[in-house]
Each structure stands twice: as C-alpha cells, then as structure tokens.
Write a structure and sequence with these properties.
The protein is an alpha+beta fold and 206 residues long. The protein has two domains: 124 residues, 2-Layer Sandwich (Ribosomal Protein S5, domain 2), CATH 3.30.230.30; 70 residues, Histidine kinase CheA-like, P2 response regulator-binding domain (Alpha-Beta Plaits), CATH 3.30.70. Strands 1, 7, 8, 9, 10 and 11 form a six-stranded antiparallel beta sheet that branches. Strands 2-3-6-4-5 form a five-stranded antiparallel beta sheet, with helices on both faces. Strand 4 and strand 5 form a beta hairpin. The longest helix is centred in the middle third of the chain and has 18 residues.
Length: 206
C-alpha cells in the first residue's frame, strides 16, 4: 500500500475470464467506496450468476490499508479469497473489490490449481482496467458567514480541495477535503479568514 500523499485505485469496472480443465473463472473488478457498495455489488453478482458454484471475493478499502476482507465462499481454505486479495495488494490499489465467479467444469483442480486460477483471473481483471493515482485528502468542516463565501471558495480552488458537502444559508457549513501534501498552507490561508471556524473531520479519499 502506497503511504503518503497519494493512493492508487481504479475508476471503472472490468472483467476477465480464466479457464482451466473445463472450469470457468469469471473475474469482476469494481471500484467501491465502502462496505455498502460491496454488499450491493455482491447481491447483483449473485443475481446475475445464480448457477455459479462459487462467488469468491476480496476487497481493500481506505488509504491506510487496514480495511479488507476476503472469502473462499466454499472453496478449500486459502485457495480463493487470499490469492484474489494478493493481486489487489501486488498492484498497490485500494477501494477495489474483485469477485471471481466459478463455474465448475467437472474436474477437480486441487489446491495449487485453485490458487493459480483465482490469482490469474484476478490479475487479468486488474490488467484490463487503468490504475489511477489520487491525492489523499484530509477532511475539514468550515463554518463561516455567507458574505465570506467567495473568499473561502478562492482558497478551495487554489489548493485543489474537494467540496464534499455544503449548506449555504446566511451562515454556511462546508465539508472539504484538503490534499495532504498542501495541508499546512491551505489551513494557514483558511485561518486568515476572519471569524471562520475550522474543524478536522474524519479522513476521506477522493
């Protein structure tokens, strides 16, 4: 996992197929934001492939790399989920889910054969979708008077911040993501704005 000011992910879904002795391994890669995305996608995949023998998966979320899960979904322990997760990690990507749907072909592949099949299918899916580099953002909440909106937006634009949520009334509240590599100068500029209240909120990714 790439620590620091940037992280790598995918922005488009992709699929690839690996075959071995009659078994088909269909790998589906998706960009996801959270576990809710994961649940929705898994439900959709199972609905689209109801006759598949296994729906194995792995995902990693967040820029700290600490949120991940993998499942062998009925395959022998360690033969599916872990090899899929291994491919996500070897590409150093996060906010990524890979589901590998297996249609059994009648011939048992054995543990080494299964590990190779799930690993190969996951690798192929990641090869056909571009990896993008994004800035790691630190979340801040700003409270200010509506008359200061232009001043605030000038700083937001100048330092490539991302507006995540805003309520613009006489008194405004805005959640922004500040790129980590420009954090100090951005916070200094925001603190220069009179009567603006600045508070750190949960870290987020672009």
């Amino acid at each position: 996992m790439e620590q620091g000011n940037y992280y790598q992910t995918i922005e488009t879904s992709a699929q690839a197929e690996f075959k071995d002795r009659g078994s088909r391994f269909l790998a589906l890669a998706y960009p996801i934001r959270d576990t809710d995305d994961f649940k929705k996608i898994m439900a959709a995949v199972k609905k689209a492939h109801p006759k598949a023998n296994h729906h194995c998966f792995a995902y990693r979320l967040g820029t700290d790399g600490n949120t991940f899960r993998s499942s062998d979904a009925g395959e022998p322990s360690g033969t599916a989920g872990r090899p899929i997760l291994g491919q996500i990690d070897s590409r150093q990507v996060t906010d990524v889910l890979i589901v590998v749907v297996r249609y059994f072909g009648g011939t048992l592949l054995g543990v080494p054969g299964l590990i190779n099949a799930y690993k190969s299918a996951a690798a192929m899916a990641l090869q056909v979708t571009p990896v993008v580099r994004k800035p790691v953002l630190k979340g801040y909440n700003l409270q200010f008077d509506y008359t200061q909106l232009n001043e605030v937006m000038n700083v937001v634009k100048q330092f490539d911040c991302m507006v995540l949520k805003q309520e613009l009334q006489l008194f405004c509240s805005m959640d922004i993501g500040i790129p980590r590599n420009r954090l100090t100068e951005t916070v200094m500029r925001l603190e220069d704005i009179k009567n603006l209240a600045l508070k750190e909120v949960a870290a987020i990714s672009a």
